[in-house]
What does this fold into?
Amino acid sequence: MRLLLLFSTLLAATTVAQDARVILLGTGTPNPEPDHSGPAVAVVEGANVYIVDSGPGVVRRAVEAGIRMDQLTRVFITHLHSDHTIGLPDLIFTPAVTGRREPLEIYGPPGLRAMVRHIMAAWTEDRRVRLHGLEPSIKDAYIVHVHEIKPGEIYHDANVSVSAFPVAHGSWKHAYGYRFDAGGKVIVISGDTTFSESLIAAAQGCDILVHEFYSQKGWESRTPEWQRYHAAFHISAPDLGKLAARVNPKKLVLYHELPMGQPPEEVRGEIRQYFKGEIIYGKDLDVIR
It folds into this structure.
């Protein structure tokens, strides 16, 4: 009986540990589309939540996904483009007011410390009134620790190990993707990038690859100026298919979506020229296991 109970306990613990999953909090771009919040991804392992990027609407999307404010304590920023960071004040202050009980830890590229310092300065009066007025408050929740990172393992706890790898994103000097080893799964998030050999190396055989794209057919209808920009900063769907064929993820999840007027079927077709595995055209609040 004791052996049976021990086995059941171990089985339940294993089931929980292997429930690492991705929640797409935002699949959009700088384009203000109501159905697509700005880029943000939650990696969830048990009750532990790790946010990648903080596009517009990130906290409210987190609430829709069932994430509590006290779980919003760790954020990983891929690069400092506005569509990936404009939700940082939201992540810093909204949970502090509504339930976070500990400091916020933010990891990301050089320049992040200056960005957060300016955010904190901009809301100086807000913090003064909330922390020293009549409103009940938790001082630790308003503390932010910034960690400017380099490639390699940048974070680990009892649930996950997080590694950063450099990606090429146009003229950005520092842009990263992230690999999460969690609950027996490997989850890789591209951030914004062109075709990346470092991502291929980091993501080999991963369980879930969350990757950006633009439609080749849509791109062909753009002006030469926009064609030059997108080709230098992002990856076409056919090139993503070539990349995925080398990575061989169990699931390829599309986000930071730039279909440029093309339907999902067109985008999938462009990718399937080279990659025959499972492709998920991401929508906000999708949960991928």
